[in-house]
């Protein structure tokens, strides 16, 4: 024999189900927010690394010319990216050129030792 359900027990049961659904929804939304914040930080860091900025220094790297102020400013802006950029197929060869360290020194940029 089935137990007799009162109107209040049905409402309470529906309220618990709705509360659990909302809790799950908020949990999922919070996780999505955390993941998107991490992706945003990663995207911002990647957007600062722009190997094209190093093109301002190419003439100084391959010749004996002193670097321009624009070259030095852009090289300082890319300093955190230099190891990654040495592996770039377009500009990596220039950054491995001995002139790259000379230009970095002239600009006051510490050229990192990359693995």
Automatic annotation (TrEMBL):
It comes from the Eukaryota. Keywords: Lipid-binding, Signal, Transport. Gene3D superfamilies: Plant lipid-transfer and hydrophobic proteins (1.10.110.10). Coiled coil: none annotated. The keyword Transport applies. InterPro entries: Bifun_inhib/LTP/seed_sf, Bifunc_inhib/LTP/seed_store, nsLTP2. The keyword Transport applies. GO terms for molecular function: lipid binding. Residues 1-45 form the signal peptide. One of its GO terms (biological process) is lipid transport. PANTHER family: BIFUNCTIONAL INHIBITOR/LIPID-TRANSFER PROTEIN/SEED STORAGE 2S ALBUMIN SUPERFAMILY PROTEIN, BIFUNCTIONAL INHIBITOR_PLANT LIPID TRANSFER PROTEIN_SEED STORAGE HELICAL DOMAIN-CONTAINING PROTEIN. This is Bifunctional inhibitor/plant lipid transfer protein/seed storage helical.
């Amino acid at each position: 024999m089935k137990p007799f359900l009162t109107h209040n027990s049905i409402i309470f049961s529906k309220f618990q189900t709705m509360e659990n659904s909302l809790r799950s929804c908020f949990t999922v939304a919070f996780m999505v927010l955390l993941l998107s914040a991490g992706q945003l930080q990663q995207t911002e860091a990647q957007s600062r690394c722009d190997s094209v900025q190093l093109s301002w220094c190419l003439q100084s790297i391959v010749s004996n010319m002193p670097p321009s102020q624009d070259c030095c400013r852009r090289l300082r802006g890319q300093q955190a990216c230099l190891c990654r950029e040495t592996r770039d197929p377009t500009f990596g060869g220039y950054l491995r050129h001995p002139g790259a360290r000379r230009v970095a020194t002239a600009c006051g940029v510490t050229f990192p030792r990359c693995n």
